[in-house]
């Protein structure tokens, strides 16, 4: 029987605490679009996206109305485009990018991901051409997102790629400087990138994925905060963790329901649930707010990393019991610009990049949506990326860097992107030189525990 209290609880989660389905992402393999002729590649890509995604937005909106649960984003993730581009006799990555962007716009999705390459052990000619094209592509498209995997726990860190990506990030920021360097907000550098991630900018359809599937990203930091606040102030850590687990179970059950209903309507397989707590700039929808409910004065206080570790673990333990297939990133995100509490903490200097880096050792992703002075050198950006890749490599987890050198702005200024991308204060960086280190190039070898087969 359905209990009245459960109905009221669900209504409150949605109306008062910002519970939503953060994204439904159609993962689509484009491997059968390969051709020697780039025009044929573009035609096949366009037709396939239109075929599979034509009803994605409509059906998602219908389900949102039927169940009164907001579905915030509808997205597409495709096969890493470096694979398709390098098949062409005369590759034209910009033409392929514009085709992807056009198709995404016509089917009505918010973003399309997969302008990607995996270069943890080295680059093919196609990888090099794609990476070189990123600044122009992100400056000339609206909905396209790009990700480059430069490290894994099995392969180590490709430092040539790290240094190259620092240059690409700066160029991308330069070409979009009239819009607060927003191009860099659609570009992420990964270690151990998951192939079924529904969240942008890192979503792509991995080589081992099926022809087509639907991946769902759930959220609900506001719901978790409300649950924590409902406990007695002296509730111990075990009680706190159990409450978070119970709440994560309920949030994930909602995502599983919507995801399976939508996949049935679309006639495609259900893929994975990503359990992530993804914040928004909306008041009350903040991961940083959960820390305060736990008893910290603010995000950045001593104990923040421990609080985040417990939160991340409890979310995964609770959510995994509510879904048959959990994947993606799963856990808690700590993007600065997309979380009202993190924005406030950065503005008040409770948080700096060093503290954020420490937190990434236990969160779901990494240094995410952080704005830094526009004159930050490429060598320093490469050092920041290398540090984050090392955390992922050693700990056998996904880490990433999505950093925005705000051209023409300095520490204390701010950037504003609007929507889910939010706004961010410009954070200072350590300007000690890492030039001689990052320019050594080559690969940082994989750790000894990589030899575990």
Mind explaining what this structure looks like?
There is one protein chain. This protein has 453 residues and is an alpha/beta fold. It has 2 domains: 26-191, Anaerobic Ribonucleotide-triphosphate Reductase Large Chain (Alpha-Beta Barrel), CATH 3.20.70; 217-445, Anaerobic Ribonucleotide-triphosphate Reductase Large Chain (Alpha-Beta Barrel). 43% of the residues lie in helices and 17% in strands. It contains 15 helices and 13 strands. The strands form 2 sheets. Strands 1, 2, 3, 4, 5, 6, 7, 8, 9, 10 and 13 form an 11-stranded mixed β-sheet that branches. Strands 11-12 form a two-stranded antiparallel sheet. Strand 9 (367-373), helix 14 (378-395) and strand 10 form a beta-alpha-beta unit. Helix 3 crosses helix 9, helix 7 (159-175) crosses helix 14 (378-395) and helix 8 (221-229) packs parallel to helix 10 (287-294). The N and C termini lie far apart (49 Å). The model has no long low-confidence stretch (mean pLDDT 89).
List the secondary-structure elements in sequence, H or E: HEHHEHHEHEEHEEHHEHHHHEHEEEHE
Please state the structural category.
alpha/beta
Number of helical runs? Answer: 15
Which topology of the largest domain does CATH recognise?
A: Anaerobic Ribonucleotide-triphosphate Reductase Large Chain
Question: What keyword list fits this structure?
Answer:
single chain; 453 residues; alpha/beta; Anaerobic Ribonucleotide-triphosphate Reductase Large Chain; 2 domains; eleven-stranded mixed beta sheet; 15 helices; 43% helix
């Amino acid at each position: 029987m359905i209990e009245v209290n459960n109905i009221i609880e669900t209504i409150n989660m949605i109306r008062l605490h910002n519970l939503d389905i953060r994204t439904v992402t159609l993962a689509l393999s484009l491997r059968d679009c390969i051709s020697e002729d780039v025009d044929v590649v573009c035609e096949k890509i366009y037709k396939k996206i239109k075929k599979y995604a034509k009803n994605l937005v409509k059906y998602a909106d219908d389900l949102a109305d039927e169940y009164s649960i907001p579905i915030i984003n509808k997205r597409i993730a495709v096969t890493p485009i470096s694979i398709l581009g390098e098949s062409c006799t005369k590759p034209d990555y910009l033409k392929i990018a514009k085709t992807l962007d056009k198709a995404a716009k016509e089917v009505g999705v918010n973003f399309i991901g997969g302008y990607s390459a995996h270069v943890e052990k080295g680059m093919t000619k196609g990888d090099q051409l794609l990476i070189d094209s990123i600044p122009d592509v992100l400056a000339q498209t609206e909905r396209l997102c790009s990700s480059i995997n430069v490290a894994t726990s099995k392969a180590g860190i490709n430092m040539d790629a790290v240094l190259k990506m620092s240059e690409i990030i700066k160029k991308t920021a330069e070409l979009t400087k009239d819009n607060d360097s927003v191009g860099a907000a659609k570009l992420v550098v990964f270690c151990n990138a998951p192939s079924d991630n529904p969240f942008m900018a890192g979503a792509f359809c991995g080589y081992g994925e099926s022809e087509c599937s639907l991946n769902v990203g759930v959220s609900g930091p506001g719901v978790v905060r409300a649950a924590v606040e409902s406990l007695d102030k002296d509730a111990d850590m075990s009680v706190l963790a159990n409450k978070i687990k119970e709440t994560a179970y309920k949030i994930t059950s909602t995502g599983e329901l919507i995801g399976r209903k939508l996949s049935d309507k679309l006639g495609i397989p259900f893929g994975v649930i990503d359990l992530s707590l993804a914040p928004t700039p909306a008041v009350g929808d903040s991961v940083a707010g959960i820390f305060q409910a736990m008893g910290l004065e603010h995000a950045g206080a001593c104990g923040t990393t421990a609080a985040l570790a417990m939160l991340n673990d409890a979310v995964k333990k609770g959510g995994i019991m509510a879904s048959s297939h959990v994947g993606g990133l799963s856990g808690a995100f700590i993007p600065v610009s997309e979380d009202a509490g993190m924005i406030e903490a950065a503005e008040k200097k409770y948080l700096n990049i060093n503290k954020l880096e420490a937190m990434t050792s236990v969160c779901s992703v990494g240094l995410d949506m952080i704005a830094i002075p526009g004159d930050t050198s490429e060598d320093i950006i490469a050092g920041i990326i290398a540090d984050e890749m090392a955390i992922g490599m050693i700990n056998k987890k996904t880490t990433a860097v999505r950093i925005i050198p705000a051209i023409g702005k300095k520490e204390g200024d701010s950037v504003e992107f609007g929507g889910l991308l939010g706004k961010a204060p410009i954070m200072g960086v350590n300007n000690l030189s890492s030039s001689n280190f990052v320019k050594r190039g080559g690969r940082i070898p994989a750790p000894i525990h990589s030899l575990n087969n």
